[in-house]
Specification:
Elements lengths: L2 H13 L7 E3 L7 E2 L6 E10 L10 H19 L2 E11 L4 H17 L3 E9 L3 E10 L15 E5 L4 H8 L10 H14 L5 H6 L7 E4 L3 H12 L2 E5 L7 H6 L2 H10 L5 E6 L4 H10 L4 E8 L3 E5 L5 E2 L11
Parallel strand pairs: 4-5, 9-12
Antiparallel strand pairs: 1-2, 3-6, 4-6, 7-10, 7-11, 8-10, 9-11, 12-13
The protein binds adenosine-5'-diphosphate and magnesium ion (MG).
Adenosine-5'-diphosphate binds next to helix 1, strand 4 and strand 5.
Length: about 325
């Protein structure tokens, strides 16, 4: 990118980076200087969003800014970490100040909610892409890991499932008349796709309560499958218990909801396991975090995730989740 344009863009980014006491030196030098709190472990995650792969063409810059940070905060949430800092690598087809400002509106809107400072990054010309790294803290040994599920644990999920995948499925075929109930429901689904809510407070509240935890980014079955593999266990889920939003229920019948809830991506809910004896503690944590949680099944002996319908028959998903390079 030509020097003046890049300089101007970085100045715009710097103006809205947000600050924290533990940022000794933020944007502007060759690297950031950060002061991690003594006695805590550093938790680091990175997620990249590419146009046409991770977000549809036509996604507004403000929504993209929000989502680029949200998907990363979701990873920290799944570890039970307290977010602190982030870096941002942007690849842009052209140096566009208005685009950067709008992107930062979305990005900063979410960063401010969680007290996250933007401490550095890189800005280059290329296909539209945003890559964020987040840093957070946990007390040593308390992170919520994928390998900690135990046979007999309950399986829980936060919020509702399937909305983002439902929005994607309606992108090219949304026939809801403007102003109608269906149009409202459709817009609610689209908001869940564009502005996912990272469950940061819930993740932190589950430290010491939950055992294994993962965020649902590629679909419930695929992601819970990762927990099962890492923990050397299986899981059995009750299809009828999977939480669905009002909007999803308004637009999709039970049969068409199921694949969206089980295999749709981009939910950014937390799926976690906890001992049966911890049910009250889980509900208390959810209340503290003001985040609804639903018990959806059990950790069992064996391997893989089995979903059973209301009559106890195994239900087969049409596909398990989103796989890159398939
Ligand atoms: P260098 O050539 O040393 O990498 P840059 O011109 O790329 O320097 O970056 C200058 C400063 O601006 C650095 O502190 C860098 O971290 C920051 N920066 C560049 N791009 C971004 C961005 N997209 N978001 C946040 N900070 C950025
Ligand atoms: Mg650089």
């Amino acid at each position: 990118m030509s020097a003046p344009a890049e300089f101007d863009l970085i100045a715009r980014i710097r103006a809205r980076a947000g600050g924290r006491d533990d940022v000794v030196l933020g944007i502007g030098d060759d690297a950031a200087l950060l002061a991690p709190p003594p006695g805590r472990q550093l938790v680091v995650a990175m997620d990249m969003l590419n146009e046409g792969v991770h977000f549809p063409q036509g996604t507004t810059p403000a929504d993209l800014g929000w989502k680029a940070l949200a998907v990363n905060l979701s990873d920290l949430a799944a570890m039970g970490a307290e977010p602190a800092w982030c870096t941002l690598a942007l690849s842009l087809p052209c140096a566009d100040a208005a685009w950067i400002d709008a992107f930062l509106d979305g990005f900063r809107g979410l960063a401010a909610r969680h007290g996250v400072a933007l401490v550095g990054g890189d800005t280059t010309r290329g296909p539209l892409s945003a890559c964020v790294t987040v840093h957070g803290f946990v007390a040593p040994g308390t992170a919520l890991r994928r390998d900690a599920a135990r046979i007999g644990d309950d399986v829980w999920v936060s919020g509702t499932l399937g909305d983002a995948a439902a929005a994607l499925s309606r992108l090219s075929a949304d026939d809801a008349p403007p102003g109608s109930e269906a149009a409202h429901a459709s817009a609610a689904l689209r908001t869940r796709l564009d502005r996912p809510t990272p469950r940061v407070e819930l993740g932190r509240a589950l430290v010491g309560v939950a055992r294994a935890c993962i965020d649902v980014s590629d679909g419930l079955l695929a992601d819970l499958g990762h927990v099962c593999r890492a923990s050397g266990v299986g899981a059995r889920l009750d299809l009828a218990t999977l939480p669905a939003s009002i909007a999803l229920r308004a637009l999709f019948d039970a049969a068409s909801r199921a694949p969206l809830q089980c295999a749709g991506g981009d939910d950014y809910e937390l799926c976690f396991t906890a001992p049966e004896a911890a049910r009250d503690n889980v509900l208390h944590a959810a209340q503290m975090a003001r985040t609804p949680v639903t018990r959806i099944g059990r950790v069992v002996e064996g391997e893989g995730v089995v979903v059973v319908d209301a009559s106890g028959m195994p239900w087969q998903p049409p596909r398990v989740g989103y796989v890159h390079f398939d």
